[in-house]
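Usage

Read records sequentially. Each one opens with the input sequence:
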Amino acid sequence: MSAAEHSLQSARSALAAARRVVVKVGSAILVEGDQVREPFIASLAGDIAALRARGVETAVVTSGAIALGRRRLGLEGALRLDEKQAASAAGQAILVQAWQRAFDAHAVVVAQVLLTLDDTENRRRYLNARATFATLLELEALPLVNENDTIATAEIRYGDNDRLAAHAAQIAGADLLVILSDIDGVYTSDPRADPAARRLPLIERVTAEIERAATGPNAAAGVGSGGMASKIAAAKIAGLAGVATIIASGNVLHPLRRIEEGAAATLILPSASREGARRQWIAGRLKPVGRIVIDAGAENALRRGSSLLPAGVRQVVGEFQRGDAVTVAGEDGRALGQGLAAFDSGEIAAIAGKRSDDIEATLGYRRRPAVIERNDLVMFGS
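and closes with the structure output:
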């Protein structure tokens, strides 16, 4: 998506236009020795509170648990996976307490969300994670995201929190990812080694040349596992989901306010629109395993952009689980659309034709009322 096709021209304009933002903070700017940089967190909390005051929903992806925990446990040198898991367990408590202290000044509740790669690769767990994000944001809490290092194995790890942040932005339905780094953007080469390196304020497309110029983590910092290469990879992941990415300096107080004031940063435009990326995924890549037949009233409501509620369901065909792709069909057999089921087939059959208020009495537990959420539905011919 080119700058001409996109209304965003700079990091400043992107942050000003965003309605839901995920902010990623790395270990190198968050941790010093065995301590959290409290003044920095306090300043960032103030920036986020200002965004929230103007209606911008915000989540934070935080690194630092392993860096804090390893020092508390006296672990030195290269760590084995089990030692990293132990360090993370020790460091998480310190990290969450530090963030909550910072947000206490703004009366914001911090809610820890721990993810593994399986939470984004498995559709059922993806829906669970997304529902948690949605509920926390509705309750005006601040989701504080980290990788669940204590249970993640090498096979189900994101590997670094830049990629985790990109996936969290996708799950949360964000329109902007802000990665705070020890460098104020993307350069033509490593500015720490090349005085002729030029910062790129706007990247319309991540090219092979840009990827080659990206480097690994800052060895001098002594913490962190990412680097510019992982940030570029994260921007590509976010871009495929229609999320723009800002890479900016976190080595300053009030880093988000600095972006709003026009500080140096790099904006990377998404490679697809959010709606287009999701439509392609739901309707183009997922094979339906069942069918939900609906009445004419429900069809009209869906074409107006509503979610599918139990009252409009007439029949359930096939067996499927929550998160599976299903065809939505009319009573005359026409395929009307495709979406992700929010209930198992047996549950939908039990509540078909009933009011949403009757779900708890019928199933014995409360759930969000939609059989298919509107954001999980693609209507054909619309």
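Summary fields computed downstream for this record:
- The chain has 15 helices and 17 strands.
- The two ends are 22 Å apart (CA to CA).
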